[in-house]
Design a protein that fits this description.
CATH architecture: Sandwich
Structural class: alpha+beta
Shape: globular
Low-confidence stretches: 1-9, 228-232
Mean pLDDT: 89
Distance between the termini: 34 Å
CATH superfamily: Jelly Rolls
Largest sheet: 7 strands, mixed
Number of strands: 14
CATH topology: Jelly Rolls
Order of helices and strands: EEHHHHEEEEEEEEEEEHE
């Protein structure tokens, strides 16, 4: 794709702002590529295939010098725990990615993703998109982001219609569906329609990177469904 071709945002003007104009976004994308290149797949062909799909999509964004559309920073109550989460992450092997996130901290737009946030969750959770159909880095083929949980957070059971999701733990520790503990460097894969509930240790916040893959129409209209009912 060159500067005159069409991408997820539609027809792109030649003077559109690009990730090369704000290199911190470019460096973070490179860290996502490395994350999905070198994270262990545990012998799982399904996980390995997802990791390849993510890094191929990220590689295309870097090669295309993707369009950048920054809507401005936005904080939520949980971002009071971000400094601690970043401090803890800098002590791990994923420190280069954590430092790349820290450089972009003033530009991150933290959101809830729901019209009505479940009771008790508003102070303990938020996410910030890095790439997707709506930006900041415009992408039609993958959604990348960060999710921050406060200590003791219980994120209700939810699913993603038509999307495959992965989390990579950057700091702290979480459990999914009470089946194992995921510490920094761990990857969790959630296939489409898979209900999953996340709990966080009581002593520390948790910072996770995530990636969503799936059909473009599903990525453009991503929705999370809370509850235990079947996802349509």
């Amino acid at each position: 794709m060159d500067r005159a071709t069409q991408d997820a945002a539609g027809q792109v003007p030649d003077d559109a702002r690009r990730i090369s104009d704000a290199p911190d976004w470019l460096y973070l994308l490179r860290e996502y590529y490395e994350l999905y290149r070198f994270s262990p797949a545990g012998g799982s062909d399904r996980i390995r295939a997802h990791m390849r799909q993510v890094r191929e999509a990220v590689g295309k964004l870097v090669k295309a010098d993707a369009v950048l559309h920054e809507a401005g920073p936005l904080d939520k109550p949980v971002t009071g725990h971000l400094s601690r989460a970043l401090d803890e992450g800098r002590a791990d092997r994923l420190a280069p990615m954590v430092r790349a996130i820290e450089h972009l901290r003033p530009a991150l737009r933290w959101q809830y993703g729901y019209d009505k946030v479940p009771k008790g969750l508003a102070r303990k959770y938020a996410f910030a998109e890095i790439a997707g159909p709506h930006g900041p880095v415009i992408s039609a083929d993958v959604i990348l982001g960060l999710v921050l949980f406060a200590p003791g957070c219980i994120y209700p059971a939810h699913a993603h219609a038509g999307l495959t999701e992965s989390y990579v733990c950057l700091s702290g520790a979480v459990s999914e569906n009470d089946l194992g503990v995921f510490a920094p460097g761990s990857l969790i894969l959630n296939p489409p329609q898979h209900m999953h509930r996340i709990t966080v240790s009581s002593g520390e916040p948790a910072l996770l990177a995530y990636a969503w893959t799936g059909p473009r129409v599903a990525l453009a209209d991503q929705k999370m469904v809370l509850g235990r009912s079947r996802v349509e």
